[in-house]
Amino acid sequence: MKRGLPAAVALVVAANIVVLAGVAYNRSRVVERIELTEFELGQNYAGTDNSGISLRFEWTQGSWPYQSNWLSEERLKEAGINLPPLPPQSVEWRIPLPRPIFVALEIGGESWQKWRDEYMKKQDAVAPNMRVSLPRTRLISVDVARNPESLRRKYPDAAKHIIVRGVLRLSPGISQDRRSWQAYISELVPDSIHVPPPFTDIFRPLKFEQNRDTPRYAVTLCFGIRYEPWIESVRRL
């Protein structure tokens, strides 16, 4: 038992060294820097047993909630993502494993405005109990790729588009009376961003308010070589 303790301690120390080396490498160069408000970086409200504070991306799919699926087979092929063969009608679906992907998020631009306009036009045609609240975020997914460089070439202005990591999933569906794969981004990676001191003092007094009309803070977010974000600064609005 005692002989195994030094080995266990050494393993923990080695793991921590690897993690810290990865963090240092990621932060050795800033590839993106953007300021986002509370509406794009919402606070994760943990329980009383957890004193840590973290933020999460608030964003919307390019197809939410009324548009046709923006991740079409043609768009995926253009991004170098091949879909698996469709199973015959008599064969049960086998859902492929999720795939790492890079996602271009537009910040309050033409796609976002078009999405909002389409939502407002179709709102009256939906039964009141079926309506979905319009998200306050300005972030909307507009494109995907297997690597960030190809997305940045298409969207060179980092003030209008940010490139983030994500997870692409496929689910079975029906398109034009035939089987088809439906692609969607299930999450952005990482799913939460740690708030270090002293910035925690800004967030700790804030209570959850779902129907706020104006954001209460703005965060300057940096992305490193591995496109892992961290918080550079926070200011109250």
Description:
With 237 residues, this protein is an alpha+beta fold. It has one domain. The chain has 5 helices and 10 strands. It is globular. It starts with a helix and ends with a strand.
Number of strands: 10
What is the helix fraction of residues, given as a range? Answer: 10-25%
Category by helix and strand content: alpha+beta
Mean pLDDT: 83
- Count of runs of 4 or more consecutive helical residues: 5
Spatial sequence of strands, sheet with the most strands: 5-4-6-7
Main sheet overview: 4 strands, antiparallel
Number of domains: 1
pLDDT < 50 stretches: none
- The 3D shape can be described as globular
Strand content: 25-35%
Q: What's the end-to-end separation, in Å?
A: 56 Å
Radius of gyration: 21 Å
Name the helix and strand elements from N-terminus to C-terminus, one letter apiece.
HEEEHEHEHEEEHEE
Q: How would the blueprint of this fold be written?
A:
Elements: H1 4-26, E1 32-37, E2 41-44, E3 54-57, H2 73-78, E4 99-107, H3 110-123, E5 139-145, H4 148-154, E6 161-175, E7 178-189, E8 193-194, H5 200-203, E9 217-223, E10 229-236
Notable features of this structure?
four-stranded antiparallel β-sheet; 23% helix; 237 residues; alpha+beta
Can you describe this structure in just a few lines?
The protein is an alpha+beta fold. It has helices at residues 4-26, 73-78, 110-123, 148-154, 200-203, and strands at 32-37, 41-44, 54-57, 99-107, 139-145, 161-175, 178-189, 193-194, 217-223, 229-236.
